[in-house]
Amino acid sequence: MTNHVHLLLTPHTEEGIGKMMQMVGRYYVQFFNHSYNRTGTLWEGRYKATLIDSEHYLFTCMRYIELNPVRAKGMVDHPGKYRWSSYHCNAKGEDDILVTAHNEYNRLGLASNDRQTAYSQLFRSQLSESTINEIRKTTNKGWVFGSERFKLRISKQMDHPAVSAGQGGDRKSEAYRKRIQSISRSLTP
Length: 189
Known about the structure:
Layout: H1 16-35, H2 54-71, H3 87-92, H4 103-106, H5 112-121, H6 129-141, H7 148-158, H8 174-187
């Protein structure tokens, strides 16, 4: 985009994304400053990230990212017309060294043409405003984007809430504990 970048990444290590962003910040900013005879920081603030439930929410996030230039007034009317979109690779089969097919993408079909067709069909409809707002909110707050089951699993693994407990209040309250217990029971076979 003109003032920000969206990246959908699957790191190989727990620190992978942070280390990558550190390297980009270190080396790209030096290159950019040297190229344009400037000094100082290039980024407005720290990057924002959220953990995504790949199995159920990956394609929603891919659509959000690739439809972003379509939602922006006057940029393009289709993601395939945006120069920097991975849509060219995912829907048209064009080579891009920056794009690696996710396992969920590979499950769209046995042949590359089948995957490309299935992927392009995801763009026949727009995302709902509530979905767009949820993605923005979870990313800005660093919450988890996924099913309730996924959020609970991540919350337990991190021993930290994966979503907001609501406005104010005490997460240790009886109502909060009952909600967590109820979700836990529903996940137990």
